[in-house]
Specification:
By secondary structure, the chain is mostly helical. 56% of the residues lie in helices and 5% in strands. It is globular.
Length: 170
């Protein structure tokens, strides 16, 4: 099972909002962080706001923040709302031209069971869980990116300058 890119990006927006402890986030900054255009970021935020996952504040000092209680909602619930898996079940047809109706029905049931198993795994995680993992990952990355001091900086001296080469005969 795979999530659409839009659902994945929406989840990333929610995780980023969770990692800031309720501070307002600018949509342009969030969009740049997850690598989408500002219009797409606005579309995602609008959808998340309509579903009640984020609160929006208008104006020059505005932005978005995670709505109260959203951090502890199961991820499966969010995915169900964004992906509309239930729509898939309603529109799947068990009839086919010249096909075996029993086989088509069995296949449909198998796909439904796979969707249920996929969503059950997502229901075991929350946005807060993902945000905690994100913060741990950032901390590990920060530790590995800290430059090691060099001998020149340890002694407090600057490395010697190289003089420009002179042309012969000038």
């Amino acid at each position: 099972m795979r999530l659409t890119k839009l659902t994945s990006d929406a989840i990333r927006i929610l995780v980023l909002c969770q990692t800031t402890d309720g501070a307002l986030q600018k949509v342009a900054a969030l969009s740049a962080t997850i690598g989408v255009t500002k219009p797409l970021g606005l579309k995602l935020v609008n959808q998340l706001a309509r579903l009640g996952y984020v609160d929006t504040v208008r104006g020059p000092n505005g932005g978005i923040r995670l709505a109260a209680g959203v951090a502890d909602r199961p991820m499966g619930q969010l995915v169900r709302e964004l992906e509309a898996f239930e729509l898939h079940r309603a529109t799947t047809s068990a009839t086919g031209e010249g096909g075996d109706h029993a086989t088509a029905h069995q296949l449909e049931n198998m796909v439904d069971d796979a969707f249920d198993a996929f969503l059950a795994v997502l229901d075991q995680q929350t946005i807060a869980d993902l945000a905690q993992r994100e913060l741990k990952s950032r901390a590990r990355t920060k530790k590995t990116q800290t430059p090691e001091p060099t001998a020149a900086t340890d002694s407090g001296r600057r490395p010697p300058r190289r003089s420009p080469s002179r042309r012969a005969g000038t």
